[in-house]
């Protein structure tokens, strides 16, 4: 059973939902995650979405207690090394206590990690929804199913939603953090259950399987199947038809689960976190996804901006100092040159370059601040993290990033 979260805890970085009062907006990622059971991280590729999801999950395990699971549905396997695991798949694995000890942290809870195994999850889905043992066996043994299960359109996204629903229904975890594919695919991730249900009731599917449901093929469709038989082979068409006929026996389960997943995504316990940088392309993707979430009436809890320039660049006094440094570089160089053992003219050029670079960065920082303000109009929380000096390769790095975006 999950470890129950206390209503309030003085060791936490923020008040619990009960302490804040119903309807009062949260002010930090810490408070947001304390109030939710599912967090879905979305964003374009290369913005640090996977590491942000893992960092948020690690911080929740450290500060909130209970059992926290981070799930990646991105085919890139980037979490294992950072979490101190040799690898992981469909079955969740616990991050070893030694990894936290090496980071100098003693967590209040447990951190688990899993990565979607599409074929294994489809097999489990068939076993769950097949109407009887015979149908289950025929589906699992169908050559087409064996070759393409987990590869045809929408399968990865659909099974990811199935797996999320299953994990949440099991009740083993207090918090599940999901790292989705890059943004446009993440929209597919959300819409996959409904699209899959629509596909299994589509006219195209009926055209494919009708000659195998009945010996009667009308004159208009017969030439199509004769040509298809010559090109693809009768056995291949038969395998396709059998595959979809068998899957249609599970149609009711698909539709029922699609509706249940939709309800879960809209549940007050579920929130979305958009991860981005302030570069042009990622910002465009973030804006797109924020619009999608608003249009679909999903809860957008937070915006996390990575690789943001530091706030001190916006300090007016520092800007004045940089301007004065450029204007009086030679005078300053004359005074500093003896102390540094440098040639005054050369030192003056260096100081002017430093001042100019600072002023240029200040211009970029102002533009970033304006973008941040525009993006921050919708989410309850906006968190930022600067460019880190080194790539994240262990739990220490994840927790360092987590600390930057937590409060």
TrEMBL record:
InterPro entries linked: ArsA/GET3_ATPase-like, ATPase_ArsA/GET3, P-loop_NTPase
Annotated spans, Disordered: 1-23
Biased composition (Low complexity): 12-23
Signal peptide feature range: none
Domain named ArsA/GET3 Anion-transporting ATPase-like: residues: 37-311
Domain of life: Bacteria
A matching Pfam family: ArsA_ATPase
Protein name, UniProt field: AAA family ATPase
